[in-house]
Amino acid sequence: MQIFLQMIGACSIVDVVVGLKNRDFGKVWVDLDADRRDEYPRSFTNVRMVYHVEGDVPEKLVRRTIEKSHEKYCSVSNSLSKDVEISWDLILHEK
């Protein structure tokens, strides 16, 4: 389950990097946390993600890229059951 959670982060962060390819940015990373059911199968009930982007990038562009990742492009997060809540936030860091 830990690896699956990391796969969600990796898949989505690739979408963010590709979406920012023509921008001046440095590091990009995501912090992940999740809750699981107490009963079996102990699947995720919610996933929380905090994206970090270092550089001079428009916040609106980054947010739109993250939204598109979860709506359409990230096959890992889109493989989750629709009752799994994915929430995220964004922190922009100066380079």
Provide a short characterization of the protein structure.
The protein has helices at residues 2-19, 59-73, and strands at residues 25-36, 44-55, 85-93. The protein is of the alpha+beta class and 95 residues long.
Task: Give an overview in words.
By secondary structure, the chain is an alpha+beta fold. It has a single domain (2-93), classed as K homology (KH) domain (GMP Synthetase, Chain A, domain 3, 2-Layer Sandwich), CATH 3.30.300. The chain is built from two helices and three strands; from the N terminus they run H-E-E-H-E. It has helices at 2-19, 59-73; strands at residues 25-36, 44-55, 85-93. Strands 1-2-3 form a three-stranded mixed beta sheet, covered by helices on one side. The longest helix has 18 residues, at 2-19. The protein is elongated, with a radius of gyration of 14 Å. The model has no long low-confidence stretch (mean pLDDT 94).
